[in-house]
Amino acid sequence: MCKPYSPAWLTHVVKAVGAAVAITLAAPVSAQSGPYVRLPGHFPASVYRARVVGRLQPQDPIALAIALPLHHERELQSLLGRLYDPADPGYGHFLTSEEFTSRFSPSPEDYRAVKALAEASGLRVTAEHANRLVLDVEGPAAAVESAFRLHLLRYQDPGGRTFRAPDAEPSVPKALAGVISGVIGLDNAAIWQTHNRPMADASASVSPLQVGSGPGGALTPSDIRSAYNLSTVTEKGTGQTLALFELDGYAASDIHTYESYFGLPAVPLQNVLVDGYSGAAGSGAGEVTLDIELMIAVAPGASKIVVYEGPNSGSGVVDTYNRIASDNAAKEISTSWGLAEGSTGAATRNAENTAFQQMAAQGQSIYAASGDSGAYDNGSSLSVDDPASQPYMVGVGGTRLTTSGAGGAWSSETTWNGGSTSKSGGGGGISTVWSMPSWQSGVVSSASKGSTTMRNVPDVSLDADPYSGYSVYFGSWQIYGGTSCAAPLWAAYTALVNQRRAANGTSPLGFANPAIYQVGKGGRYTTDFHDIADGSTNLYYPAVTGYDDATGWGTFNGANLLADLAPYPASQLLLNPGFENGSTNPGPWYVTPGVVDNSTTLPALSGVWKAKLNGYGTQHVDAIYQDVAIPSTASSATLTFWLHIISADTTGVLHDKLSIQVRNSASAILATLATYSNLNQNAGYAQQTFDVSAYKGQTIRVCAIGNEDSSLATWFLMDDFALTVR
Question: Who's near 658: CB < 8 A, 6+ residues apart?
């Protein structure tokens, strides 16, 4: 049988108490008999910097969230890999919350067993969660001590704040050791922090950068769209439900004032109060307010924003994240509350991770502010913020934005670095808890000082410097910065992505990092992102080319990244692309006589017909062309065809040519895409590919012109044309 507390921990307690406080540590009495085992991960780091000042009173009320582990975790990891692999048949086939619960949640029998343990120990069940991953209970301190075989002590930290924490890891019956993964709420040492940086009253015009046209020179909704290339994007988040994780309330009148001032629609707000939270606006109301307003700034057409509000406690945090996952009501979620990674116990972090895995399996995208203390999230040593460092979270860092003028287009960005004296800047660095996820492998350079084995943060960034900050109405016009601003903007941007994906008949983006890192590793990275690579730092990590721990991949180039995260379905614009209408009806191709050919000695690539240019051995010109209009809304346009060159001329001297040209409808040459000759003869058909995106919004003439001289014959065989747009 496990002892009620470990000798090492008791030694620490006795030394801490000294002669100042007399505490009788009687062994708790358990309602259960039989062997017990201890659950690790429940000691907050702050107890090692504090002194014991007493015991909790037996009747002191304690609220707990008992966390249960996932079932079939290896199967879940395999599923998550397939859900986010575009080459897998299961790509994007996300689960409903009911399907997730059926496949991966604890069984109803396990849930009942945990409930029975709590009730037998004198604890009252206050809430049952639909996904059976958390059970909420409460009871007097004496019952908690008895149930989990520990003592609850009062501590005082060096700053004078008092908090409670256990003197030992909680014990549970051995029969339930695999059924309970954590007991959240035994301590209340942690207070989750907001990641915003307000400036003075905006009417004072305190921002010297004047990047925006709003009060005080701050960024307005239209300024955000101008700066990040969203002005031409027609999506406004229509049909999308967004959500916010909050540990405070807000005044609805502030939101209405913001919407009215900027001429925005009144986006419906739904408050979901967790663990009996009142919803009243408290000291963190500025955070909730800016989160809502900045979401509306980018996604004013959203169906609604669900504001989940819970108490600022370990159990409140776990319950609120779990409620968002269990509800599965919103596909775009933001959280701007966090703590230095080492400030919470492993049990709390693991319970958060469980909720985030469920969100990923259900196609929910969640973004977290990475912190406002640069590389020193805990204020003193290199550290990162939880939950931004979680493996199923998109961590969002901060930059300082410069525009072409007040309310103008993007000009440049650098890492947000408030300086060593203020210890402010975009959060980022290396996790000491989580290993490097597969999608982050291969992107960290030695120049970035990042890790090649552990999770690096952030993943992306956005403007967060208060000196290039945002107009927010919170009682009056304020200027806000902080990564708290960047996270809800990324979530709202994802609502635009998901609106277009829905219109295209594809699934939501879901957990965004696999797609983001695929773009970062690809050829369109510098088109889709503003890469901050100027050597600036977040007080330690430098911004280098590509990914880095100062700004991640950088900030979005809105319309460009949207086109790659939500590509339009491919559409082939050319008609009769394989000439299968035959020689008597070649339209809409214009062809010179004899070009459309069905001879079997020179067969087509597919079907019966092809275009055969030249092959006469005399001076001759053949041509084909077709006029086609490329929509201005296309994100890309690609011309392809298959070409087989046969020549009797083996002299090694260029004699016969085939030119591929783009002309306008008046036949003026806009570009020669390629020129082939008798020197390029090949053994069979080979596909040729050209990017013609430069001609979006134009009607162009796709031309192939063969010129043959009087020397030996050369045949240019062409088949299966396509002009594909997305």
Answer: 613, 614, 643, 645, 675, 676, 677, 704, 705, 706, 707, 716
d(CA 667, CA 662): 9
Q: Are 53 and 162 in contact (CB under 8 A)?
A: yes
Q: Mean pLDDT across the stretch 654-665? A: 96
CA Rg, the chain, in Å? Answer: 32
CA distances from 391 to 104, 363, 373, 455, 634 (A): 18, 15, 21, 7, 34
Closest to 410 in 3D by CA, of 239, 539, 532: 532
Cis peptide before 508 (omega within 30 of 0): no
List the one residue out of 562, 570, 560 whose CA is nearest residue 501.
562
The mean pLDDT of the chain is: 93
* Tokens read off for 314: 């370990």
Instruction: Give Cα 536 to chain centroid, integer Å.
Output: 24
Strand, helix or coil for residue 116: helix
Q: What angle do CA 387, 388, 393 make, to 5 degrees?
A: 90
- Residue 201 confidence class, pLDDT cut points 50, 70, 90: low
Q: Kindly report the CA angle at 202 between 200 and 205, in degrees rounded to 5?
A: 95
Average pLDDT rounded to a whole number, residues 374-399 = 97
Burial label, 271 (beta-carbon count in 10 A; 0-12, 13-18, 19+) = middle
416-431: per-residue pLDDT in tens? 998 877 889 999 999 9
What percentage of the chain carries pLDDT values higher than 70? 94
What confidence score (pLDDT) does residue 34 get?
66
Q: 47-51, 155-159, 206-210: which range is least confident on average?
A: 206-210
How is residue 575 written in tokens?
Answer: 């008609």
459-500: pLDDT as tens digits: 999 999 999 999 999 999 999 999 999 999 999 999 999 999
Q: Are 209 and 467 in contact (CB under 8 A)?
A: yes
DSSP for 519-540, please give it. HHHSTTHHHHEE---SS-BSSS
pTM: 0.83
Q: Are 464 and 416 in contact (CB under 8 A)?
A: yes
Beta bridge partners of 238: none
Distance CA(631)–CA(695), nearest Å, equals: 9
Closest listed residue to residue 331, CA positions, set 296, 303, 291, 352: 303
d(CA 484, CA 637): 38
Q: Which residue has the tokens 């002892």?
A: 3
3-state secondary structure at position 388: coil
Q: What is the mean pLDDT of residues 671-699?
A: 96
Task: Give the end-to-end CA distance of the chain in Å, rounded to a whole number.
Answer: 66
241 within 8 A of 494, measured Cβ to Cβ: no
Buried b (16+ CB within 10 A) or exposed e, 103-118: ebbbeeebbebbbebb
Euclidean distance between CA atoms 531 and 553, whole angstroms:
6
Of the candidates 101, 109, 107, 104, the residue with the CA atom closest to the CA atom of residue 130: 101
SS in 3 state form for 291-328?
Answer: HHHHHHHHCCCCCEEEEEECCCCHHHHHHHHHHHHHHC
**Structure tokens, 25:** 């540590």
Query: Containing H/E element for 357?
Result: helix 346-361
CA 184, 185, 191: angle at the middle one, nearest 5?
A: 110
